[in-house]
Design brief:
Its main location: membrane. The chain is mainly beta. The protein has two helices and 51 strands. Strands 44, 46, 49, 50 and 51 form a five-stranded mixed beta sheet that branches. It has a four-stranded antiparallel beta sheet with strand order 1-12-15-14, with no helix packed on it. Strands 3-10-9-6 form a four-stranded mixed beta sheet, with no helix packed on it.
Length: 713
């Protein structure tokens, strides 16, 4: 058996009937010449033939249809390529697509000296400049299959054919790849006997632009004989997508008075069609402007870039004279380079004319009047201004400053954020007797600086005349508070001091009367005419109304005005201590067991309401203890405590022991207090004081309590 010759596989760019004999190879469907070169003329003339194209589908060219890559050209039925209008620049390359129900093909026209105006279809299609049916034997050459998207029924539709010039009998064609046996499956298939490649459904270039397939021949057992050979299917774009604006809302800002040609914003639309074709070549224009004043053409849009720029003079772009500082533009994007056949999409561009500070604030009056009562504080007048700038910006918001007439800082001015008025306030009470009139000079500026060619004028300053009204003011004590120091227990009727109150209303010559306002202990009296304060009771430093040896009282001074005005003064009396309180002991009861081995009974403490040196050290004594009955003794522990103890055990009973305690004052004061002592029966850890008067405290507990008290001193 002779060795098998290699296969010759060719994918035709034309749609043909299956070849069943060698004679069928004599007619090659498609353009007879696929590549042309012409020199770039000065201008292509309308309806003047450029060249003649010859296409043959080998079936009579029934329903032959031509498409040209540029919208400025067409191919007549006789194959002549002509321009639709006089045009000079069309690019470097034109492509002509011919199609019948049986075949389709592509021819390329190279314009020598032409300039690129868009991407070449050849870059997208990888179009081969060689014949789709090479005649070299024993070689494999495959060219792409070109299929327009959006084809209609019927399907399946033959789109190409694989030819094997030396295929063994019984061998079969097999097609694989994405779109065949890989997702999306079943789009393409091949006749295993004839090699015809067909498409089974409509294609969408925007979903998948190219398919990479592989063709091979196999024997009856499925074993590969030749291949696989790559086969590329390219989906030809149709203008089936409108431009869309995807990035809205579109809001631009331009400063008023901007020079003509100022760029405001850029509008960019998206077209899903092939960006290398006119199907996605967009042109922009303004369809409508609202409002259309002062000019219906306030703005211009660059048709290619989409940049919106101003086209009116700076004087017309004045926010203060515009009916509305907001413009809305309906922007249209059209593909096919803006030709009428192109699809369109629209969006709204909103343009805000922003304010600049070209109008200084001006007072509505040169002079303002205000009145205020002496002693009062708060807002006394609102200063009004006018400003033509945008109320939402710092070019409108006012800032007020007092530039003269406020040496004592008695006045302040603040801006009302809602009305922009200047609120002039008194912050330190004014005195009519010192000055009945005040004159302030106030200026107003904006938060933002003015533009260079504008300045603040005389209208940006104003004068405020303030009249102070006289008010009947209450008398004022001096000093306040008034302070004196006296010993407690001074005799009733003793004079403490004479108060002094003056009337601020010096021009009214009013008289003043005095009275007691608050005297918690009821110790004081005041002369209503001359203000002399004396005592009408004994002053007691230890009184609950005295705090830290100081007694406080309030007095009133009342003038003779109509109505009368009142002033209040405070008197603070510091009371010096005298030894007028005897000391006292604690505790005053105790108990002890009748068989106690420890004869200590209780620890006594002493206290005194007076101050040192009229208190401790204290002297403790047993008062009037009969000599035969001396069973008690008292011993000093420290300056404030002493220990009471037994000399011997006593029978169960109640005892009263007089204790005398003396302080260290000069002269000293003494106090005698009965200490009640219960002698109880203490057996088996039980304390029984019933017979001794039913006191239920053990002597031990009392002693411990006394020791704890001592330790805390």
């Amino acid at each position: 058996m002779q060795p098998r010759t290699p296969l010759l596989l060719c994918v035709l760019l034309s749609q043909v009937l299956p070849l069943t004999s060698a004679e069928d190879l004599d007619c090659t469907p498609g353009f007879q010449q696929k590549l042309f070169h012409i020199d770039q003329p000065a201008q292509f003339i309308e309806d003047q033939a450029i060249l003649n194209l010859t296409f043959n589908d080998c079936k009579g060219n029934n329903k032959l249809h031509y498409e040209v890559s540029s919208p400025y050209f067409k191919v007549n039925h006789d194959g002549s390529l002509v321009a639709l209008k006089n045009i000079s620049a069309v690019g470097k390359t034109l492509f002509v697509h011919a199609r019948t129900p049986h075949a389709e093909d592509m021819a390329e026209l190279v314009i020598v000296g032409g300039k690129d105006i868009q991407g070449s279809l050849q870059d997208i299609f990888k179009f081969a400049r060689t014949s789709p049916v090479p005649r070299q034997k024993r070689s494999i050459v495959v060219s792409p299959i070109l299929i327009p998207e959006n084809q209609r029924q019927p399907f399946p539709r033959d789109v190409g054919k694989v030819v094997d010039s030396d295929r063994p009998e019984g061998s079969k064609f097999r097609l694989t790849g994405k779109g065949v046996d890989q997702e999306p499956k079943g789009i393409f298939r091949i006749n295993e006997n004839t090699g015809s490649v067909s498409v089974t459904r409509t294609l969408d270039r925007e979903t998948i632009a190219t398919y990479q397939l592989f063709v091979e021949t196999t024997d009856v057992n499925g074993k590969t004989l030749e291949g696989p050979v790559p086969l590329e299917v390219i989906v030809i774009d149709q203008n089936d997508n409108r431009p869309i604006f995807r990035e809205g809302p579109y809001i631009g800002h331009v400063m008023e008075g901007s020079p003509t040609g100022t760029t405001v914003m850029r509008m960019t639309a998206f077209d899903a069609d092939d960006p290398a074709t006119d199907n996605a070549l967009l042109r922009y224009n303004i369809r409508q402007q609202t409002p259309d004043k002062p000019s219906p053409n306030m703005f211009y849009i660059d048709p290619e870039k989409g940049d919106i720029v101003t086209v009116v003079s700076p004087a017309l772009l004045d926010r203060e004279t515009l009916e509305n500082p907001k413009y809305e533009l309906i922007i249209e994007a059209q593909d096919m380079a803006g030709l009428d056949v192109g699809l369109t999409g629209t969006a709204t561009a909103t343009i805000m004319i922003d304010d600049k500070n070209d109008h200084p604030p001006k007072f509505t009056k040169k002079e303002f009047q205000a009145t205020v009562e002496e002693g009062a504080v708060g807002v006394i007048v609102n200063l009004t201004v006018e400003d033509k700038d945008d109320p939402t910006t710092g070019a409108w918001r006012a800032v007020y400053t007092i530039i003269n007439g406020n040496p004592g800082q008695s006045f302040e001015i603040h801006t009302n954020p809602q009305t922009n008025e200047g609120m002039l306030s008194v912050v330190k009470p004014l005195d009519y007797e010192i000055s009945a009139f005040h004159t302030l000079l106030i200026k107003v500026e904006n938060e933002d600086p003015l533009v260079p060619d504008v300045s603040y004028g005389p209208s940006s300053t104003a004068t405020v005349h303030i009249t102070v009204l006289d008010v009947n003011e209450g008398p004022v004590f001096y000093p306040d508070p008034m302070m004196v120091t006296r010993q407690e227990n001074i005799s009733v009727g003793s004079v403490l001091l004479t108060v002094n109150a003056t009337d601020p209303d010096s021009l009214q010559h009013q008289t003043i009367r005095y009275s007691v306002y608050k005297d918690p202990a009821g110790w004081l009296n005041i002369n209503p005419i001359n203000g002399t304060v004396d005592t009408m009771a004994v002053l007691d430093r230890e009184s609950p109304f005295v705090h830290n040896s100081v007694y406080a009282a309030l007095f009133l001074a009342i003038d003779s005005g109509n109505p009368p005005a009142t002033g209040t003064g405070t008197l603070l009396i510091t009371l010096e201590d005298v030894n007028d309180n005897a000391p006292f002991i604690y505790p005053t009861v105790a108990e002890v067991c009748d068989d106690a081995k420890n004869l200590s009974v209780v620890i006594l403490g002493a206290s005194d309401k007076d101050l040192h040196p009229n208190t401790d050290p204290f002297k403790f004594e047993i008062h009037k203890q009969a000599v035969p009955d001396k069973v008690w003794k008292i011993s000093k522990i420290n300056n404030t405590h002493a220990l009471v103890s037994l000399v011997q055990n006593l029978n169960k009973a109640n005892y009263h022991l007089p204790i005398m305690v003396t302080d260290s004052g000069k002269p000293p004061m003494t106090n005698v207090t009965d200490l009640r002592i219960q002698v109880c029966s203490c057996k088996n850890s039980k304390v029984d004081c019933n017979a001794a008067g039913a006191l239920h405290f053990s002597a031990t507990l009392v002693l411990l309590a006394s020791l704890f008290s001592l330790a805390c001193l």
